[in-house]
Design a protein that fits this description.
Order of helices and strands: HEHEEHEHEHEHEHEH
Number of strands: 8
Number of helices: 8
Distance between the termini: 20 Å
CATH architecture: 3-Layer(aba) Sandwich
Structural class: alpha/beta
Length: about 260
């Protein structure tokens, strides 16, 4: 299954732009004063996939450390642009049409444990909803939050803030993409509502962590998927994880 999925991913992305869809990207202000470097604005970005209309799922992506102070990491032009993967997933029928949205943290964003301080999922969902084009609405019952690397390391921010938040929107799923695996992370993820699925993916080529200890600490939590992604054997292993994680997680969570 892993080989088949990896082959599909690389073959499909290689076909782009042949499979590229007519999606649209909108930007909007979100925590600009707190999180953006001087001269930047509209830190929020949302990609509306092709054929998205009515109520559609929302995938919230929280990037990792941002030493280059890049605006809209992973939702702007470049080899790591996740919009290409969303195009492929939707075009090939692996996921339903959706919105992929992400805030930006570019000011003092060099430490994993301090990324997206005090992240408010409800506020971000509302800001995204207000920025969407007419005819596209957020299905609040299908909100998936993905934290990559440092986006899943801050005890009081990012993915872990969404996990520990009491009241408000209940995410369909929380997904950790090659993030921290310390005890405080498991403590936060175990606080998520019982109806929220928790999916954790990691690679072992770089960034040694206490994987087995993490498994044991997560064991009491129901509805958990823990999976190591193999076959990554180069210096880009960590940076390639988001596209591999989305390709695994979204079809199981947001199938047509």
């Amino acid at each position: 299954m892993r080989r088949t999925l990896s082959a599909w991913l690389f073959a499909t992305v290689a076909l782009l732009p042949a499979l590229a869809s007519a999606g649209a990207t909108v930007t909007f202000p979100f925590e600009d004063e707190r999180w953006l470097s001087a001269g930047q604005k509209n830190g929020g970005a949302a990609y509306v996939s092709d054929r998205a209309s009515g109520e559609v799922p929302l995938v919230v992506f929280l990037h990792g450390v941002n030493e280059s102070r890049r605006l809209h990491p992973r939702l702007s032009d470049g080899d790591d642009d996740l919009r290409k993967l969303v195009d492929a997933l939707v075009a090939t029928g692996r996921t339903t049409p959706l919105v992929l949205a992400a805030p930006t943290h570019s000011k003092d964003a060099t430490f994993a444990e301090t990324i997206f301080p005090g992240f408010d999922l409800d506020a971000f969902v509302e800001a995204t909803r207000a920025a969407l084009p007419s005819g596209v609405r957020v299905d609040r019952s299908r909100v998936v939050v993905i934290g990559h690397s440092g986006g899943a390391c801050n005890p009081t921010g990012g993915l872990l803030a969404a996990a520990k938040r009491k009241g408000g929107l209940t995410p369909l799923a929380l997904v950790e993409s090659d993030g921290c695996m310390d005890a405080y992370v498991t403590e936060a993820l175990r606080q998520a509502p019982e109806s929220t699925r928790v999916l954790v993916y990691w690679q072992t080529w770089m960034w040694p962590r206490r994987f087995e200890a993490f498994r044991q600490l997560m064991a009491p939590r129901t509805g958990v998927t823990l999976e190591v992604i193999t076959g990554l054997t180069d210096a880009n292993a960590h940076d390639r994880m988001p596209e591999l994680v989305l390709a695994r997680a979204l079809p199981s969570l947001l199938a047509p």
